[in-house]
Structures
1.
Amino acid sequence: MIDLSLYKDKTVAILGLGKTGLSTATAMVESGANVLAWDDSESTRMDAAEQNIPVSDLSQINWGSVDRFVLSPGIPTYAPAPHPVVEIARESGIQPVADVELLFEAQPQAKYIGITGTNGKSTTTALIGHLLQKAGHNVQIGGNLGTAVLDLDPFLKGGIYVLELSSYQLELCHQTRFNMAILLNITEDHIERHGTLENYVAAKMRIFNNQTDQDVAIVGLDDPLCQAIYQGLIGQNLQTTFAISAGQAAPGGVSIVDSEVIDDMEQISHIVGNISDFMTLRGQHNWQNLAAAYTVARLMGERPEKILKHAETFPGLAHRQEVVRDTGTLLFINDSKATNPDSAAKAIASYKNIFWIAGGQAKKKDIKEIEPYFSHIQEAFYIGQDQALLCDLTKDQFPSHLCDTLDKAISAAVQAAKNSPDPAVILLSPAGASWDQFANFEARGDKFKDIVQALQLD
């Protein structure tokens, strides 16, 4: 846990006591701060109190005595409407911050690599950590990926924090400076939280705030919004900026085209190697993730061939095109993390002869990102709240079935796939949120894995 003794005897208000907030409150209490913590959920407050976290109604405290206000990332700051406590704090002249700010304050000697984007953040974060650890660097990985940043260990003589950052976290970062800041992609997402696409883009771009000419920005070129951001950073010339791409040339940067890694970082374009056999990095979207991680490793002084050697050993992440079972004729893939159509499209593009399981809570009323890959899908099996919407969108393209629940969808998909003359892929890539039927996408993916592993297959 990070030592926050710089807040000893200071008053710290904390709103939200989920994983991040509870981690912050625990670190503050252990560091001797005067903690005032609150969550709108009574049961969550009771759980925190049982862990000796002081609970106080933040709408009733004296904000003039508060030195720091830490906000959990999921709580609205502006759109669709700010939380009432956030408004009270701002009226008292106190801006909310993320736990990432506290880490940066407490560990100024460390290096910081930040990764954001609509899709691919977790894989890229884990892959960068993997490559740097293989190369012998002292690295810790956390943030939105899983481990709250204040639960990481402190570095005594430097070290590197590799942090996945959501738009929610970034809008609460004010002073944090990333030595390397990576923006993979931006597609329409979380609009219900940010209010507009412009607000969402602005939150993502905060990852480049506070950078200097000693720092690096790495930006994907594979969507129009990021192309414009890349050109803007080049024009400002505040930091060194590298382009990455999966599918097109990236002058002065790194691209992966037709499975070949092309390094142009020194303005001399050359092919480093072919990654078509890298099982945990299949698909064009993973090429972008690898291009970003490769760029970081090269900037840290690693040799190109060694980087690819280490990348081939990357174990991958659960719920992100995770191979669950392979019978030779049936390949089961758990891509439960694909909670929007853009993310699902990336998985569907990676396979052929797909028997697709999808559904849940739709984030939009179309799946236009998936349409170019309809030919990859043989049949679809839909579940959850918005299954009828998906069925209406695809029933004229391929057989589409309303299955209600995941177990029924898997059973129907297996029966259909068994009749395929070619090896088939049973792909859970929902293109929707999980909250209608599951606690989170992890629970959905775990259920898929449990059912698939228990199947009695001939």
2.
Amino acid sequence: MKQRTDVLLSLGSNFGDRKTHLNTGLDRLARAGCLIQQISPIVESPAQLPPQSPSEWNRPFLNLVAIGETVKDFDAFQRDAKAIQLEYSKPGMSKWSPRELDIDIIHWGKKAPPNQQLTAGVLSVFTRPYVLTPLLHIAPSWPVTDQGDVTAFELSVRSTIELHIPIWMGILNVTPDSFSDGGRYETPESVRAQADHMIQNGVNIIDIGAESTRPNATALSDDEEWKRLLPAIKQVKESCANTFLAPEISVDTYHPVNAERSLNQGIDIINDVSGLRDDHMLALARESGKTFIAMHSITVPVDPKISIGAREDACRVFETWVDESRRLWENKGLDLDKIVIDPGIGFGKSSLQALDLMRSVKRLRKSGHRVLIGHSRKRFLKAFSNLESSELDLETIGASLNLCAQSVDILRVHDVEAHTRAYLSWAHLLDNTEVDKSESVV
């Protein structure tokens, strides 16, 4: 039997039906003998161009990374990848001009491809946000040096990359009593329409919630929550089934029984607002191999009378909780790379403590986990606005762009369209000048 080699690929498109081109590229690679094992979320970012490029070249890219295996040697695999890419190339096309499909071989056998060079001990290609961000989501421990002494996550923590692309998690509440959108998505038609709308606007994860955790909300039984969740899961799965490179589906539940039921339905992520401490939930995280989000909370649902204390350092409290949780997770045999942490904005913290946590994303990421912030339309925003919660999207976007500048990993928001549009405009004003693309191998 021939030896299989791990291959890490980066695919991009900034012309025509970009998502279809990416999907076709993956399909062609698979038919050429590359066994695709993992596909990252799609991220959107401005084109990186040399100075004085024509304005018509400034088209945003959709990018993803994929991990695969092949029995072919490097030269044969490179020829296949180049042939697939050349099918999309026009005669005389500059390597900087818009293109339907780019395929780059980033790693070969978890090392630099034979014709790439190391830059200051780290592969320079990994400093590209459109490679690093999607890789973090599927393989944060991927070694980014030939020596394996720096992982993708370690590089992202110490990196000075100005543009760190967030993963967008869209909130889809099927509750009658959520604080800002209760009752909007209770019918199958409204759930399907909202899922379709988020998919069309670049959502990476759709997070389905069926129990409100707002202050003084009524807790549900397992069966009451599942009665709401299951129809919504089916509708979102149908939306995703009709979509090239569909987003992941998350279920927002602290009920272990419903987490297990959701995983049995093929759900990708469990969002546990109770912090991943329950023995049943821990067993699910260990045995499923799926991503789990662990949120710091004092009470669920929120009890306004119980908090961490007005004089407490919220960041220190959260860091202590993460350290304690990591010891528990390790003892229970969990894959720590699969755990995302959430400081729980609005859960037992004052508005000032919420702001302090949100100003400290880089500090929180040093724990070794990806950080999710769920600040959308939260009560703390009312400290500088007199609007109702459902009207706080502009305030939410303002905070989100600041969080993007701090290299936040995942942003959980209600209005996906407004966020992806605002982010892309903000990102275009950063310095995206490309100075060298010589390490591209196809």
